[in-house]
Write a structure and sequence with these properties.
Mean pLDDT: 94
Protein name: methylmalonate-semialdehyde dehydrogenase (CoA acylating)
GO biological process, one term: thymine catabolic process
Structural class: alpha/beta
Distance between the termini: 74 Å
Strand content: 15-25%
Low-confidence stretches: 3-7
Radius of gyration: 25 Å
Shape: globular
InterPro entries: Ald_DH/histidinol_DH, Ald_DH_C, Ald_DH_N, Aldehyde_DH_dom, MeMal-semiAld_DH
GO molecular function: methylmalonate-semialdehyde dehydrogenase (acylating, NAD) activity
Organism: Lampropedia cohaerens
CATH architecture of the largest domain: 3-Layer(aba) Sandwich
């Protein structure tokens, strides 16, 4: 972070979006957006001033007056257009995402596509934002509900999915009639801004979608602003807990999707080849930088003999810049992230886990300055070790042995987090018992990363989530709307208060 100087002028600046205009911030505080494979400075992002954040909220407040009255079909058609624009610009969006975030181009396309699915869901808002009617609940009395927008809503999004997670938020909020202020990650805001350009091109009116940039001060400003009615957050447990408590104190609705320590259970009857391939992809895809990654696998009974084959498969993964063909793992987001992961690997060794595969300091010709850590596997991991207790957010897989399914389930249920879990088995009875008795919000059966499609809501639980309603799906309609209940009784002109059943059509 630094004050911008004349020497910086050849590097593009990331703009703010306020009231339909992309504007240059007047701040003196800037942060570099760095390509994690090369350390090239791609752009500079402003840490917006309090006045700029207030202006964004004011624009959203003003736009809400007319946007909330816009017919539901007109709102939905904007998102039909946006999903088409995203499809047409997929290659550009993926390339921008890979440059600033580091994930492979196929992973980047997946990032955009999973957000695109929510945009398509927003286009169906007419089927989702329906109230209820009870006819004649008393003599001549009807009761019905309206799902009305809240007002100005805000979103705070993380670095690891800079396309998908903003698209989890603003399309559903705006489609339901709210206006929005988005604060993307300051580490990789460029693809988010391109998506916002496309959103304006699709027809989102001035002030309905606004973007500010910044760090802790910007987060606190959004939590504290009295005009903001609801906040959505995805990110670390530490920051999410802070956001939830600070924003709740001002009466806001808050949903926080936070950290995780996801476990998979492998029973010895599982299909070995399919299971090992699934584990490798889930543990090391996106370099482990996802809240639904698979950092812990519990091998039950004879499945504990599969460790050498798992290690052999992990050795074949290719570490390289995300732009290079056939790359399996790109770099971590920053040098600080790489140093943190390497330090946790050191702690794993020091605390007695067996290092089966060491991914530190991989050779990546042409990208010697990249933030690379290769696939790393520990066996003999136990609760209490740092590599088990802490969310590593890197390509590090911990293997634990268990004698029975009950022992494995007890371990998972004792962990405070509840984002996702999975079981690999060919036994329907075992799978059913697992799904019933496991205390985790999202369960995969022979599916390693059980993130639901947008027809359903993201349902992480326990320490992985604060707030009772998840992003997208039916739950988010309730989050972004206020249920208003109307009880109505109509009288004829001639009635003196009793019910007149004679209807005159004069």
């Amino acid at each position: 972070m630094h004050a911008q100087t004349a020497a910086d002028q050849d590097v593009p600046t990331v703009k703010l979006l306020i009231d339909g205009q992309f504007i240059e911030s007047s701040t003196t505080q800037w942060r570099d957006v760095i390509n994690p494979a090369t350390q090239q400075v791609l752009a500079r992002v402003p840490l917006a001033t309090q006045q700029e954040i207030d202006a964004a909220v004011a624009a959203a407040q003003n736009a809400f007056k007319s946007w909330r009255k816009t017919p539901i079909g007109a709102r939905a058609r904007i998102f039909l257009r946006l999903q088409q624009l995203i499809r047409e610009n997929m290659a550009e969006l993926a390339a921008l995402l890979t440059a600033e975030q580091g994930k492979t181009l196929p992973d980047a396309e997946g990032d955009v596509f999973r957000g695109l699915e929510v945009v398509e869901h927003a286009a169906a808002v007419g089927n989702l934002q329906l109230g209820e009617l009870a006819n004649n609940v008393a003599n001549g009395v009807d009761t019905y509900t309206l799902l009305q927008p809240l007002g100005v809503c805000a979103g705070i999004t993380p670095f690891n999915f800079p396309a998908m997670i903003p698209l989890w938020m603003f399309p559903m909020a705006i489609a339901t009639g709210n206006t929005f202020v988005l604060k993307p990650s300051e580490q990789d805001p460029m693809v988010t801004m391109r998506l916002c350009e496309l959103a304006l091109e699709a027809g989102i009116p001035p002030g309905v979608l606004n973007v500010v940039h910044g760090g802790e001060a910007a987060v606190n400003a959004l939590c504290d602003h009295p005009a903001i009615k609801a906040i959505s957050f995805v990110g670390s447990t530490k920051v999410g807990t802070h956001v939830y408590h600070r924003a709740s104190l001002t009466g806001k609705r808050v949903q926080c999707m936070m950290g995780a320590k996801n476990h998979a259970v492998v029973l010895p009857d599982a299909n070995k080849e399919q299971t090992l391939n699934a584990i490798i992809g889930a543990a090391f895809g996106a370099a482990g930088q996802r809240c639904m990654a698979l950092p812990v696998v519990i091998l039950v009974g004879q499945a504990q003999q599969w460790v050498p084959e798992l290690v052999a498969k992990a050795r074949t993964l290719k570490v390289n810049a995300g732009t290079q063909p056939d790359t399996d793992l790109g770099p971590l987001i920053s040098r600080a992230a790489r140093e943190r992961v390497e330090a946790l690997i050191e702690r794993g060794i020091a605390e007695g886990a067996t290092l089966e595969l060491d991914g530190r300091n991989p050779a990546v010709p042409g990208y010697e300055n990249g933030n690379f850590v290769g696939p790393t596997i520990f066996s003999g991991v136990k609760p209490g070790m740092a590599i088990y207790d802490i969310e590593i957010f890197g390509p590090v897989l911990s293997l634990i042995g268990a004698d029975t399914l009950d022992e494995a389930m007890a371990l998972i249920n004792a962990n405070p987090n509840g984002n996702g879990t999975a079981i690999f088995t060919q036994s329907g009875a075992a799978a059913r018992r697992f799904q019933e008795d496991i205390d985790v919000g999202q369960v995969g059966i022979n599916v390693p990363i059980p993130v639901p499609v947008p027809l359903f809501s993201f349902t992480g639980s326990r320490a992985s989530k604060l707030g009772d309603l998840g992003p997208y799906g039916k739950q988010v309609i309730l989050f972004y709307t206020q249920t208003k209940t109307v009880t109505a009784r109509w009288f004829d002109e001639d009635s003196a208060g009793g019910l007149n059943t004679t209807i005159s059509l004069k």
